[in-house]
Write a structure and sequence with these properties.
Number of domains: 2
CATH architecture of the largest domain: Sandwich
Shape: globular
CATH class of the largest domain: Mainly Beta
CATH superfamily of the largest domain: q2cbj1_9rhob like domain
Structural class: alpha+beta
Order of helices and strands: HHHHHHHEHEHHEEEEHHEEEEE
Distance between the termini: 35 Å
Strand content: 5-15%
Radius of gyration: 20 Å
Number of helices: 12
Bound molecules: 2-oxoglutaric acid
Length: about 325
């Protein structure tokens, strides 16, 4: 970065300028900046990937305008210590967990770690305190202009026909995203603490009724199926009690160990994603308010129709280290 650019940079994160420059020139490959560093940059800035791409594409801002947009989004207070942690990580220095020492935080026990290994998913019980989960649940209803106790309000069309809720930085959702037991569980499963929380959305899946049928997501993978496959951990935090029939998260337990032989067994020309949807049965995972379900990205997974009487209200949560192994080929 030249001196002129540096002096114009208010956040003083060089990689942000590089990222803006690459996006401006529509360099979509990992040329110039590998995917894991882009992801760390955006997570460290507290930004959602899609919101950034949409903003850059729609507004084609100058770098100054881009930084001003970020500063306005982060008016929740983007501490200098947070920015320094990001600068250090991007420069290749070791950094600790986003919330400091985790030694005294209760982690996953032996049985839970064994389940993760065997089945590729685990439920972190009471990952978030009940009252914090409920505060996040109520923030979602409020954001949507709905009332938890008024079924008619659950079907207002503000979002269109979807279960996704683009509420990204409400303080109640930031608190749950960085809850100590959430961070600790990710640190145990990754085996490291230099973690960055992706800024994911929330979700509200109301009971089906005529005119409102479950829109998906049905069984899928979010990752490439190209080999070699790598670890990534996805997560869903239940903000209210969720029964199996209440639109629970579903997955195919243990499939992270079977993905390779299964791919080998497919006849030439068969689309694995369509085949999984056609042939596999997923297990619904019921859990309580404040419980976090984590799963290995190699498990086919999806949501399910809500046949109960109350909405399923969730927050999507994930953490990745500064750098991780990934396969850039998409199939
Ligand atoms: O909402 C759910 O239960 C499924 C979430 C999902 O499919 C995903 O995060 O990729």
């Amino acid at each position: 970065m030249s001196t002129t650019q540096e002096s114009r940079t208010t956040l003083r994160i060089d990689a942000l300028y590089t990222f803006w420059h690459l996006m401006r020139h529509e360099t979509s490959s990992s040329e110039g900046m590998p995917w894991d560093l882009k992801s760390t940059l955006l997570a460290g800035l507290g930004l959602n990937h899609l919101e950034v791409l949409r903003y850059l594409k729609t507004h084609r801002p100058s770098f100054e305008a881009f930084e001003a947009w970020i500063a306005a989004l982060r008016d929740d207070g983007f501490a200098e210590s947070e920015r320094e942690r990001l600068r250090r990580a991007l420069a290749g220095h070791a950094v600790g967990s986003p919330i400091g020492a985790l030694d005294t935080v209760e982690g996953l026990g032996e049985a839970e770690l064994a389940q993760w290994d065997e089945e590729g998913y685990v439920i972190v019980r009471q990952a978030v305190r009940t009252e914090d989960a409920e505060a996040a649940e109520l923030a979602i209803y409020e954001h949507l202009g709905m009332s938890r106790d008024d079924p008619e309000s659950w079907y207002s069309k503000t979002l269109g026909h979807t279960i996704w809720v683009p509420l990204l930085r409400h303080p109640a959702l930031v608190a749950t995203r960085f809850a100590p037991r959430v961070v600790k569980a990710f640190a145990q499963l990754w085996g490291r603490e230099d973690l960055w929380a992706t800024v994911d959305q929330a979700g509200l899946n109301p009971p089906e009724r005529p005119g409102w049928l479950f829109p998906g997501p049905k069984l899928h993978w979010d990752c490439t199926l190209a080999r070699p496959h790598h670890l990534e951990i996805q997560g869903i935090l239940y903000l209210a009690e969720t029964e199996e029939a209440q639109g629970a998260f579903c997955c195919v337990p243990g499939f992270h160990k079977r993905l390779n032989p299964w791919l080998d067994s497919l006849p030439e020309g068969v689309d694995p994603r369509a085949e999984a949807l056609r042939t596999m049965t997923a297990k619904p995972i019921a859990a309580g308010r404040g419980d976090l379900v984590l799963w290995h990205q190699s498990l086919p997974h999806g949501s399910s129709p809500n046949r109960a009487s109350r909405p399923r209200v969730v927050q999507y949560v994930s953490m990745r280290p500064t750098r991780w192994d990934y396969n850039p080929e998409w199939i």
